[in-house]
Amino acid sequence: MIDDQKQLNRSPQHSITTFDLDSLEIVTALGRGANGVVFLARDNVKGEILALKVISRDSIEKKNAKALLPRLRGVLATDKVVGYAIDYCPGRDLHSLRKKQTENMFSDDMIRFYAAELVLVLEYLHNLGIVYRDLKPENIMIQENGHIMLVDFDLSTKLSPRSPDKSMPLNSVHRIPPDSVKKKRLFPFVRCCSSGISPDDAEIQASVNLDCTELDSAEKLNSFVGTEEYVAPEIVSGKGHDFAVDWWSLGIVLHEMLYGTTPFKGSNRKETFHQILTKPAELVGERTSLRHLIRKLLEKDPKQRITVEGIKEHDYFKGIDWDLILRIQRPPYIPAHLVEEEITVADKDGIKGLDVELFVREIFANGDEGDGGEKNNKGKDGENDSGNLNKNECKFHRPEDDQFSVF
Fold it and tell me: Which portions of the chain have biased composition (kind: Basic and acidic residues) (predicted)?
């Protein structure tokens, strides 16, 4: 049995030494792995014997989809709020970028690039055992270098890591782990800023899925999450879901990029859910590999839905070198460097002194009335609330450079 005190001694308070090659004596190479080489080394300062795994930076940049996820830059905390700082994305999100395109639709080449990066980042998350569950254009940011950044993990949950040769059982999310139940307190904010489906929407699930038993419904309420136009049929029906829900949502996103609209949107939420369950996707136009891929992604039976292996081998991605996507120097859209201009405009509009604590409190207080993040960025009188941010006694803690966070 592992001693509890020893485990405590290995907590985050345990200091980590930063080495340089001059301070180490490399004795011999012990072996190699898929991404690096392991050496037997001696610390010349402390005299300790170590196993040193060395990985090429090029290999990391070439293969690691972490570059498409948020990196934690720092944490802010007061007695009323906590905050997490990540890199600013000057390209905003895929929704706003689509609005700038001709007829609000992307070209085939742009769709292919963003689709490939989404496949990589979802595959990476699934291999970590993370089901994202809220894929939509508003959560796909455009970084300064033109590559995407997937954000907003409020609705995500953890399963056993995905294995290519072992699919997850469909009931694997029926019983949500205790830490996921705690996320319920986040849902007022989700409703305000992203129209997300939360466990509070159980009555709508019951009206759509009338054949569920009372016991089944009770077990699955906390699994009923997502954003209504992008949610998979198995979530609506309450039959249990796994990683396949993210591939359904990818199909919805690709449809929206191609046609400028989602395929199952109804006049109200109940009609939208009914169409998700019963209506086939209408893919107007000539038969193309993209439309074929979308159809395979929007397969209503999750057991028959295309998997990541099938996606990466699909004709739509024919000729793509998956190992080189993250190294593309010129993505189809590079945001203009307007950060300083945006800050200047904010200063002129009096936003500089925004009272963060008051602003967040009012957002949560009015959460049930909100229908989108941008529409709720103003106070009750329609003007931006102002205050003095500096009056709050708080500290900004910078993490180590190699720390990483999934928001």
Answer: 372-383, 392-401
- What value, to the nearest 5°, has the Cα angle with vertex 84 and ends 67 and 369? 110
Q: Which amino acid is at 116?
A: A
Judged by DSSP in three states, 37 sits in strand
Which of the following is catalytic: 134, 152, 201, 242? 134
Contact 197, 227 (CB under 8 A): yes
The letter for the amino acid at 221 is L
DSSP 8-state code for residue 91: T
Q: Based on the fold, state whether residues 159 and 11 are members of the same structural domain.
A: no
Catalytic residue flag (residue 134): yes
Report the pLDDT value the prediction gives residue 76, as an integer from 0 to 100: 82
Residues 26 and 154 occupy one common structural domain = no
Task: Confirm whether pTM is higher than 0.85.
Answer: no
The pLDDT tens digits of the residues spanning 350-391 come to 555 567 778 787 877 765 443 333 333 233 333 333 333 333
CA gap 357, 405 in Å, rounded: 23
- Contact assessment for residue 361 and residue 329, using Cβ atoms and an 8 Å cutoff: no
Question: Residue 36 sits in a domain of what CATH number?
Answer: 3.30.200.20
CATH label of the domain that carries residue 101: 1.10.510.10
Q: How far apart are CA 399 and CA 380, in angstroms?
A: 36
Average pLDDT of the chain to the nearest whole number: 74
Residue 199 has pLDDT above 70, yes or no: no
DSSP state of 78: -
Q: What is the pLDDT of residues 69-117, one digit of tens each?
A: 998 888 888 888 888 898 889 999 999 999 999 899 999 999 999 999 9
Mean pLDDT, to the nearest integer, of 276-289? 96
The C-alpha angle with vertex 149 and arms to 67 and 140, in degrees rounded to 5, equals 155
Q: Are residues 45 and 140 in the same domain?
A: no
279 in a known ligand binding site = no
**Structural domain for 227, as ranges:** 92-327
Nearest-angstrom CA–CA distance, 70 and 148: 10
